[in-house]
Amino acid sequence: MLTGFTASLLLITISELGDKTFFISLCLAMRYPRRWVFVGSIVALAAMTILSVALGQLVALLPKQVTHYAAIGLFILFGVKLLYDASQMTSLAPSAEAEKEAVEAIAEAETKLKKAAPFAIMAEACMLVFLAEWGDRTQFATIALAAANNPIAVTIGAILGHAICALIAVIGGRLIAGRLSERVVTALGGVLFLIFAIVAWFEPV
């Protein structure tokens, strides 16, 4: 359980900092009461985590060796891709593209939002964050972790990691984002994926 919890907590926390969902929560918190934005964001992220873990359990029905080496392959793939992406970035560039996409998504949603009632705010945050998280690398990482580790531990670790990032976004996101090097965060994520690939390789099947 400890392996699944630690792996999901670290992977999610590092990968989500500066991600599109991070900036969606950040931008919404600058316009609406933070508590409602946080609640909506964490509901969406928890739902996505539970869905991803459920998909991981379906994958786990395959032979253990298949899921074990498939998870290792995914970790290596994501790790190499993130390191390559980091090498193509300007060394001190902030997450400008992710922030731009987040602002555009919010602007589009707000054209349909008639009231700034708590439920409307939570619903907007929930919808935007859930859609942004769908197909994200952290979703596939959660699926892979859940297929190879204790699903309860992965669920708790991933939700806690998402909660930490959402809390950072709604409380001090603008200050942190202004100093956030996308290259460093991306590289850290890549290194972390590769570390867990190595750890998984030496674990007994």
Task: Write the topology of this structure.
Elements: H1 2-16, H2 20-29, H3 34-59, H4 64-87, H5 96-110, H6 118-133, H7 137-148, H8 151-178, H9 182-202
Helix pairs in contact: 1-7, 1-8, 1-9, 2-3, 2-5, 2-6, 2-8, 3-6, 3-7, 3-8, 4-7, 4-9, 7-8
- Give the rounded overall mean pLDDT: 79
Distance between the termini: 15 Å
The gyration radius over C-alpha positions equals 17 Å
The rough form would be described as: globular
Give structural notes.
The protein has about 200 residues and is mainly alpha-helical. Helices cover about 80% and strands about 0% of the residues. The protein contains nine helices and no strands. The protein has helices at about 1-15, 20-30, 35-60, 65-85, 95-110, 120-135, 135-150, 150-180, 180-200. Helix 1 packs antiparallel against helix 9. The longest helix has 28 residues, at about 150-180. The protein is globular and about 50 Å long.
Brief rundown of the structure:
The protein is mainly α.
Key features of this structure:
205 residues, 81% helix, mainly alpha, single chain, 0% strand
